[in-house]
Amino acid sequence: MDNKNLYMHNRARVILQCAFLLFLFAGQLIAQTDSIEKKQPKMKFGYIKNNDGSKTLICEMNVRIEKERFKIKDLPINFSFSGADSTINLGTVKTDNKGIAVFKIGSNQNLTPDKEGFYIFKAVFDGSSAFESAEEELKVKDINISLSFTEDSIKYININAFELINGEETPVEGPTVNLYVQRSLGLLKIKNQTLTSGTAQFEFPSDLPGDSVGNLTLIVKIEEDENFGTVEKSEVKKWGIPFLVEAKKKARELWSPDAPLWMSVTLLILIFAVVIHYLIIFYKLYAINKEGKELNVKKGN
Amino acid sequence: METEKTEIKVLRDFIPILERFSRKEIVVISILSVFLILGVVGLLFQVIYGHIVTGMRDNVMWGVFIANFIFFMGLGYSGAVISAVFRLFKVKWGLPLVRMVEIITVISILIGPVYVLLCMGRLDRLQHLITEGRIQSPIYWDFMAINTFIVGSIIFLYVTSIRDLAILRDNSDLLKIGKFRKRIYSLFSLNYKNTPSQAKHLRQAINIISTIIIPIAIILSTILSWIFGMTLRPGWHSTIFGPYFVFASIYSGTGLLIILMIIFRKVYKLEKYIEEKHFRYISVILMVTGAFYGYLTFTEYLTGWYGSESWELELIFKFFTPTFYGVLFFFSSFFGILVPVAICAVPKLRTIPFVTVSGILVVISLWIKRYILIIPTLETPLLPIQDTRLEYITYSPTWVEWSMVAGGFALFITLFIIISKFMPIVSIAEVSEAIDAGNQNKS
């Protein structure tokens, strides 16, 4: 290599090395400027009394970063109960991908409320290297809802709600009860009413489509009440209009009519044009091979 | 007789490459095997545990796999276009390079689509692309185009290799190779004896495939760009994406060709066939395609910025902010366009070392370009993402993805070395013809 080429060679090597160094270390230099700072998560604590009498404690954790809120997964949430006698540690559940930790209390688990009839639940997050600690407490009373139905020319749903105070059934006064019907993608709200002397009555519409035999799932809910939390009661009734959907099979194959005609024609022309050329080439190769074979035979003769 | 002698002379130069794996090659293949095994481990990990082991999530659902897919497909198209143009326009100086670019095409086009499969969650439904494919979908167009191009590029490599296969068959005694390989040469050379009629058929076949492979490669490259261009997303929804992808492909393919030229020239001592003038000429191609590619890049970002559409601006902000994609964008633009084009624009700098540096910069930058084409756009959705997890917003490739990316590159190099053992990487028939023609002109 002459001096000129050697000089060019070395210069090229230096340029390349500089480019690589810049590329490799730029990310690290930027990363060094970042500092770790603990974030304060926001805890949302809720209570649901389910249809079967079991209770669900729901704790949702999220954090605000700049202008957006993000769910936080894998945070251990400790649930506890404080009643008349003592505090019971119910257990620890980690938040899931949606930032929610759910703890279920079976209907057979005996929890004793305090003197005023309140069940006190607590959710505690002890904090981590990335997040500050957080805790929430909620006080709820136990409520029992029963449903009865009157079927005549008009259909009625009768609601009876009571709480146990010193072992006696006491009608609940005040909370708002909502009536929903389960639809494919969510709940359809029908009406709401305030409980008076523990009772409420809803007139049910007669024109709601049900499933193929007319079944409807009726859901009665007290939602996020300050004394009772969320309480659900549901039942399936044949009060809907049978609704049969005839599934129309829509072809999605290559020959589907959905594609515009010009598109299908263009595609076919292009494929045809290419395949024809490929076939001509195959023919040429066949002719080469055939002639070569004939020459071999002649030589053999 | 004279032609035969030249053919044998040229063949003798390639006998050491064709006969055995050298120590250096065995060492290289052993190192590459480590990456290949790593790629297989990553693949198994993904198959067993699912896509959760990758960095891809709901919002950023494409990552380095698709970047690699576009990169390899680009190399494939460029190889086909460069070789076909050299053949159709009878560019004599390009004859020693055509085989290499044809091999690049076939290997790239076979490896590239694998990365799409790696992105798919339900490979058991792959046949639905045929049975339930929708003609309206650009992905379906791409599926059809890729399959057409795979067939075309294999035909292209095969048809242009028949004469060499016949030379290897007829001179197999010169090579210390097994009977199996001799049979392979005999079978695939299709009894070619270079009779006037056979030569005419072969010439016509080469001309047909050279003519048809150019539009196929351009259509395929354009269709690939439409997967992005047809989508209403900032940074993707652009009318110039078709030609942008075509030039990016040829640009990166030329860069890779330069790298392979220097490797084969040095390792196999092919200075006689891959001369300094080849680097000089190829640098002009690199400069022209690079200038076009740079022009399209400038147009793309200028129109996006000038329009001041909020999502487009958000994306452009990320490209010009070092804490986001500023460093990568700068590298891909400055070292990927300006530096190589500037080097190749100065005749004095069109030397082997400088052209090689340009080629390396182009290949690295164009891979980075594919990365920043995909990820920042997916991280900048048209609707703000609310109540979602942090790892869904931004994308970071995991070791599983890097292992398969490395495995793909290792497979590319390994296959190239293996093919070079079966087939001369320079077209013996065409080069010897050119040498004879040159000698006749002199005399």
Give an overview of the whole structure.
Chain A is of the alpha+beta class. Chain A contains two helices and 16 strands. In chain A, the strands form three sheets. In chain A, strands 1, 2, 3, 6, 12, 13, 15 and 16 form an eight-stranded mixed sheet that branches. In chain A, strands 5-4-7-8 form a four-stranded antiparallel sheet, with no helix packed on it. In chain A, strands 9, 10, 11 and 14 form a four-stranded antiparallel sheet that branches. In chain A, strand 1 and strand 2 (55-65) form a beta hairpin. The radius of gyration of chain A is 36 Å and the shape is elongated. The two termini of chain A are 59 Å apart. Chain B is globular. Chain B contains 16 helices and one strand. Chain B has helices at residues 2-19, 23-49, 64-88, 95-119, 128-131, 138-170, 179-188, 196-229, 241-267, 276-307, 310-319, 322-345, 352-378, 390-393, 399-422, 428-442, and one strand spanning 388-389. In chain B, 77% of the residues lie in helices and 0% in strands. Chain B is an all-alpha fold. Chains A and B meet through helix 1, strand 3 and helix 2 of A and helix 6, helix 8, helix 12, helix 13 and strand 1 of B.
Which key features would you list for this structure?
heterodimer, A: 301 residues, alpha+beta, eight-stranded mixed beta sheet, four-stranded antiparallel beta sheet, 16 strands, elongated, B: 443 residues, mainly alpha, 16 helices, 0% strand
Please summarize the sheet with the most strands of chain A: 8 strands, mixed
Share of residues in strands of chain B: under 5%
Q: Termini of chain B, distance in Å?
A: 17 Å
- Count of individual beta strands of chain A: 16
- Biggest sheet of chain B, in brief? none
Task: Summarize the helix and strand pattern of chain B as letters.
Answer: HHHHHHHHHHHHHEHHH
Low-pLDDT residue intervals, each spanning 5 or more residues of chain B: none
* Proportion in β-strands of chain A: 35-45%
**Shape label of chain A:** elongated
Query: What does the average pLDDT of chain A come to?
Result: 82
* Rg over CA atoms of chain B: 23 Å
Give the helix tally of chain B. Answer: 16
For the CA atoms, what is the radius of gyration of chain A?
Answer: 36 Å
Q: Which pair of protein chains has the largest interface, and what are the residue counts?
A: A-B, 51 and 54 residues
Mean pLDDT of chain B, nearest integer?
90
What low-confidence regions of chain A span 5 or more consecutive residues with pLDDT below 50?
1-9, 27-34
